[in-house]
Amino acid sequence: MIKQQVIGHLGKDALVNNVNGKSVINFTVAHSEKFKDAQGNKKEKTIWVDCAYWTDRTGLAEYLKKGTNVHVDGSPDVRTYQRQDGTTAAQMTLRVASIQLLGSKPENNGGVAHEAPAAAPVNELTEPLDDLPF
Question: Which CATH superfamily hosts domain 4-32+42-104?
């Protein structure tokens, strides 16, 4: 099993979708790293991770707003598809097993972060994993 963990900020508000009668919360997490290149110049690289949280507990989506800092744990899910030009492409999505709300980015209000309520749910994956290859 391959596990993946991401800590970062949501790039936009989460969306709740219904796929084949099942609920999924879709969101994107940005993780940024600062580094120096070979010439010593400061650089920043941002990696965007598409996430899919298959759950009936869709009430969590109201806390997943743009800028919210989260810790997401899950496994990568790769799907292939045909582009309009006929070429094959692949997309990797993190299939979320658990998510923890860490708070929000500070806004222009004196540096005070808007954090999720202390009672915000920390959910675990509860759906059956009937699509596993074993």
Answer: Nucleic acid-binding proteins (2.40.50.140)
